[in-house]
């Protein structure tokens, strides 16, 4: 599985390329695709539905929780943007980890992320199928999941441009939906929406106040909000298949920054201002539905179901793409079965098929082993995104110093206040680990994800020693 190394343009130790004869990807993504992938990546079902759990725990202080976690995500994306603009690669942070730390690190973070995306594909398929069977009762969920799998399998097998078009329009629908929600919500908060009265600060200060469940509730809300941000990483993977990768990733990362604050923090502020945080509907049907229902907008449930369905299908599409590209990159660097890295017409079709098949296997496990294997699989990937962020931060800390010594002109995107903010982000992640260990609901996830990471790291170290000349 090994390949001869080539010099890295960052001046880091030699690392096998993730492109080469028979492995070259096409460059069919346009700037508009990348911009929408970056935007769509932060607007998912975690925001539309999962945020209700955070609101129930933290109350109005969920706005602070999303602001804090959003700041951390912005720092991580800035670090990743710096490295990806300097060295665009479809393996993204896996390639950067290999260059900075060693092949074992690239192996560990790459395959952990692949498993995470494949499991997520299955979960999103199940969620989308539940919505459709609610509209068409009596139809089997597995059949809808299979239909969605076939649809996105076809899109990803065809060409990267086809994937880009799917994701562009999915993301456009999500952005339009949340923008309309924010406009209506702000008008209602100001008392300018016909038929509604300005709520003032009643919902922010009543029913226990801004921090109704104390610091413990804020911590639970923080952990719930943190993992809702997953998905932004895909844009740095996709940038390698654009016509101008450096400009593409730089622009996409920069434009995504302030929109994180607008979409997440802004929408949470609107929801908790309009609706009492203790309203059962916030958790039962989601905070966005509860807000629309409060505004008297007819058929609010169906509107939100359509938006959530689009968000889930968009995530399926993006995760099949991201998993296949990560697998191809790992194989091209000698860290996986060679057959998985075969590229045809600029598309890693074998990797697309295997990634989709693994995702569908997760769906079947949810039916076959719902009480043991499936929950274990969910726990195993629960904290993987935090592991990815730690590898990103450590890699940026090392590679930035190398770039400044060797080729500083490649720093098209620069991490703010380096190295201070990078170190601060790492300390914040360490603090999140401690918080997860203290919470019964997240402790199992952290331990299971830690076991997966440790197992992959052990395999990676053995593989690295085996390939060492």
From TrEMBL:
TM annotation in the entry: 36-57, 63-80, 101-122, 142-161, 168-193, 218-240, 260-277, 297-322, 343-368, 374-399, 411-434, 446-463
Amino acid permease/ SLC12A domain sequence ranges: 33-439
Membrane topology: Multi-pass membrane protein
Start and end residues of each stretch annotated as Disordered: 1-25
Keyword annotations of the record: Amino-acid transport, Membrane, Transmembrane, Transmembrane helix, Transport
InterPro entries linked: AA-permease/SLC12A_dom, Amino_acid_permease_CS
Coarse class of the protein's main subcellular location: membrane
Subcellular location field: Membrane
Pfam families: AA_permease
Database matches in PROSITE patterns: AMINO_ACID_PERMEASE_1 (PS00218)
Top-level lineage group: Bacteria
Compositional bias segments (type: Pro residues): 1-10
PANTHER family (UniProt xref): GABA PERMEASE, GAMMA-AMINOBUTYRIC ACID PERMEASE
Protein name: Amino acid permease
Upper classification of the organism: Bacteria, Bacillati, Actinomycetota, Actinomycetes, Kitasatosporales
